[in-house]
């Protein structure tokens, strides 16, 4: 048995993380081993904790450690505005910008004929329920400016037509750009200048 097998396994796992390839993974693992007490042990402990506690909010799909997330629980966020995003990373990007005071709905992807993703594979039925039951007055579609993102936005707009005010983020979100990659100022401008659908 190779004396480096455990470490090689760790490198292989780390290399699967977004943004890391084998080379960055090797550097990261070496760094962790050198900073065993300061970094490696606390990281390993925290990964175990999160592996036990992380879950999706049953209401909106946000990731947290409770069945219902803090945003859904907060009375202050019950403004009647619901911001629809594709992914939790987009929700977190909106929260970093700190400009939106309502609640969110995470679809969990986009409609895609090519990949066989239909409305029931996303949280679209749940979105309809929420609009009907939560006193929602405006749905803001903050979907990415990709073909699938826009197809999904049009589908949702059709589904909710006449039930609620529908808006989308202003242009300024780059084509193919994901919210997570935008700076806070751009997100804020795109939300403030949102347009009717
Ligand atoms: Zn939630």
TrEMBL record:
Organism the protein comes from: Ruegeria spongiae
**Renumbered zinc finger spans (C4-type):** 57-72
Similarity comment: Belongs to the RecR family.
* The keyword rRNA processing is assigned to this record: no
Q: Has the keyword DNA repair been applied to this entry?
A: yes
What name has this protein been given in UniProt? Recombination protein RecR
Q: Which Gene3D superfamilies match?
A: 3.40.1360.10, RecR Domain 1
Which InterPro entries does this one have? DNA_Rcmb_RecR, Rcmb_RecR, TOPRIM_dom, TOPRIM_RecR
Q: Where is the Toprim domain?
A: 80-174
Q: What's the name of its gene?
A: recR
Entry-linked Pfam families: RecR_C, RecR_HhH, Toprim_4
Matches recorded under PROSITE patterns: TOPRIM
Biological role stated in the UniProt entry: May play a role in DNA repair. It seems to be involved in an RecBC-independent recombinational process of DNA repair. It may act with RecF and RecO.
Going by the UniProt record, its keywords in alphabetical order are: DNA damage, DNA recombination, DNA repair, Metal-binding, Zinc, Zinc-finger
């Amino acid at each position: 048995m190779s004396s480096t097998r455990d470490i090689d396994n760790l490198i292989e796992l780390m290399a699967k993380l977004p943004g890391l390839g084998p080379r960055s993974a090797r550097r990261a693992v070496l760094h962790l081993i050198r900073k065993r007490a300061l970094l490696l042990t606390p990281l390993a402990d925290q990964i175990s904790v999160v592996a036990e506690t992380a879950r999706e909010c049953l209401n909106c799909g946000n990731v947290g450690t409770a069945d219902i997330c803090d945003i859904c629980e907060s009375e202050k966020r019950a403004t009647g505005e619901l911001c629809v995003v594709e992914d939790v990373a987009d929700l977190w990007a909106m929260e970093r910008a700190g400009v939106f005071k309502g609640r969110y709905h995470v679809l969990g992807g986009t409609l895609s004929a090519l990949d066989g993703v239909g409305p029931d594979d996303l949280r679209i039925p749940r979105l309809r329920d929420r609009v009907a039951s939560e006193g929602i007055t405006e749905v803001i579609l903050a979907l990415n400016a990709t073909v699938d993102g826009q197809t999904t936005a049009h589908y949702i707009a059709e589904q909710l037509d006449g039930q609620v005010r529908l808006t989308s983020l202003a242009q300024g979100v780059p084509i193919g750009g994901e919210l997570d990659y935008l700076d806070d100022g751009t997100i804020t401008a795109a939300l403030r200048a949102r347009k009717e659908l």
